[in-house]
Amino acid sequence: MRGWLRYYGAFYRSALFAVLRRVNAYLMRWIRKKFKRLRRFKKAHGCWQRITSQHPRLFAHWAWTPTFW
Questions:
Q1: What total number of domains does the chain contain?
Q2: Residue 58's domain spans which residues?
Q3: What is the predicted pLDDT for the residue at 66?
Q4: 3-class secondary structure, 62
Q5: Most buried residue, 22, 24, 29, 54, by most Cβ within 10 Å?
Q6: Is 37 exposed, middle or buried (0-12, 13-18, 19+ CB in 10 A)?
Q7: Looking at the domain assignment, is residue 68 inside a domain?
């Protein structure tokens, strides 16, 4: 993913932000389906905030997105 971001980010960076937000939405949906205790949005959002603050470089695209949710 990192190479893909570098390649397409050099040409059309503004279009990447919509795609990266969608990737984050897919990750949030996966978290909510995987863990029963996080099915409610508030709990999943809290977990998301904790993960992104503790591990800001866990995924390559998180370095590109200034706000997560």
A1: 1
A2: 2-63
A3: 60
A4: helix
A5: 24
A6: exposed
A7: no
At 19, list the tokens.
């795609």
Asked whether residue 65 carries a pLDDT value surpassing 80, the answer given is no
Domain membership flag for residue 43: yes
Among 27-31, 45-49, 51-55, 59-63, the range scoring the smallest mean pLDDT is 59-63
Nearest-angstrom CA–CA distance, 4 and 61: 10
- Asked if residue 17 has pLDDT above 60, the reply is yes
Residue type, 28: M
Look at residue 69 and tell me if it is in a domain.
no
Structure tokens at 61: 């695209």
DSSP tag of 61: G
Confidence band of 28 (pLDDT split at 50, 70, 90): very high
Give the per-residue pLDDT at 45: 92
